[in-house]
Amino acid sequence: MMAGGGLAVLFPNKRTLGWAMAMLILAGGGTFALWVGLVSDPEKIGGGLPFIPREINQRIGQIGYTLSGLFCIALLVYGLWLGPNNRRGKGSQADR
Fold it and tell me: What angle do CA 6, 88, 9 make, to 5 degrees?
């Protein structure tokens, strides 16, 4: 997935390829984050703040993953709505 982003950088004149790779990265990242936040076992989420109980740290981790997944999916939807050529584009009413 990330290699696709690097591939898109190698071809700067291929705007559609860069857009497609960005959409793929957002879809993959959003799906992964939502899966971790909503489906995975909370016991597997580690880290957090040392002075907060483990259960609260796990809940914070789940909420963080879920929110970041929703953010990625929102960016994906917006990117798909704009399309590879950006609906505004050059010469649109907003540029005049």
Answer: 10
CB within 8 A of 32, min separation 6: which ones? 69
* Cβ(42)–Cβ(62) below 8 Å: yes
* C-alpha gyration radius of the chain: 18
How many residues does this entry show for the chain? 96
pTM over 0.85: no
Q: Which residues contact 3 (CB under 8 A, 6 or more apart)?
A: none
Three-state SS for 1-53 is CHHHHHHHHHCCCCHHHHHHHHHHHHHHHHHHHHHHHHCCCHHHCCCCCCCCC
Q: What is the mean pLDDT of residues 52-67?
A: 91
Evaluated on CA atoms 63, 68, 69, 75, the torsion sign reads positive
Residue type, 11: F
